[in-house]
Amino acid sequence: MASGNLMERAQALDRDDPLSSLQAEFNIPTRAQIASSRLPESSSVSQSSSSDTADTDVTASSEPSTYLCGNSLGLQPKRTRTRIAQYLDTWATQGVQGHFKPLDGSPLPTWLDADQRAAELIAPIVGASESEVAVMQTLTANLHLLMSSFYRPDINGKHKILLESRAFPSDHFAVETQLRHHGLSPETSMVVIETPHSEDNVLTTYDILSTISAHAATTALILLPGIQYYTGQLLDIPVITAYAHKHDIFIIWDLAHAVGNVPLSLHSWDVDAAAWCSYKYLNGGPGCIGGLFVHERNSTVTKAITDDKPAEGYSNRLAGWWGNDKKTRFAMANKFHPVSGASGFQLSNPSILDITSLNASLEIFQLAGGIKQLREKSLKLTAFLEKLLGEMKEEDKALFRIITPLDPQQRGAQLSIKLSEGLLLPVMTELEANGVIVDERKPDVIRVAPAPLYNSFVDCVKFIAAFSLALEAGRKAKGSKGTSS
Ligand SMILES: Cc1ncc(COP(=O)(O)O)c(C=O)c1O
To answer: pLDDT at position 56, please?
Structure first.
């Protein structure tokens, strides 16, 4: 298909897209900005696209880049700057009063209520009740906190933790160190789920369930990703959760790549617990505050806490004052009485700077009408990208293949593309030179994620044009026609 027709087709799809106006809510870096290594002088980056263009091609300066990297770091919502300025003004003018004094005309909650407001906004995105969600800490820290509560090894019985062999390294480290923390050895207590049926490490539900079966009698806990970071594969969370429960195993889901990307129904899927970060599809900003889900059955506080039985009446945990019941939090009594629900797992007073940033982005999820509407667009966008990849020239297609499952129900926004050996560097270099930002996973995978909040069908066409040039550059760099990997 001629590229002109393709562009017209994409433009027509964008015109028909009921969510296309949301793109204007985001700062899309210009091509000049991503090429520049100088911090713009102006603080109003969102208004100025040419302040840092002196040494770059003027024709390309104000053209937006093609940013397809929301799987790694979501773009900055324009309202983030506004909300953070309002937060700073509150702090500047109210000092400590900002904790509890509502201000007329402020869209921000008092700082004491900021975490609650974030939980209200995130609950529908993960399919939970507000009390099952807490916005706190960061992902790896939250995985540790959840394991410290719910991993109760019995060396003569259930002591193993199951995880996938290609788990994100931080998850591996968390599991290994939890085991050592309990005096156990990863060699005997850690089981990794292999992918014998796939050369690209795509898991099958069968691989997972059969590993669970094989270790059912000795497994205490499972940690799995909702969406696998490398392949972009969406696992069957409800089926795997039910199977774990059938074998009396507690299961924790790492939702780093799933939250804000695909609809989740954590409560009705009966998930035990989960944790996520907010800097990918939730656009909270680099390293922004994370979140966790604890099913209500795992977080009830059933009895008054008494001096002689201080830990009775609630599940065990590593505690801090912010998990204490709000009514008595400031009584300063040294008797921990957690609030029922996920917020009873909080430790410290949270960073309001972070929560303000996160909430700014979550406002846009509301504008979108929710995660289901976003998923509808996402399915179309990613299918469009897949189709365009399939329509590329044969000599291009010989140099890559998609390793993400082709079934749309088994993936989110991301497509992981495996390149022929030796192409990663020239391809990434050429993509960047053409204003395209994706991310790489060595040795040979690029991850391309059209995020439905700010990406368009036109972005997909621009990616394909740049990808074709990049593969051409790769062929030249290798000095041969190249062969399929
Ligand atoms: C799947 C997965 N797990 C864990 C992490 C670690 O997250 P954090 O640095 O927020 O703890 C990441 C980070 O990208 C991730 O993608």
So the answer is: 44
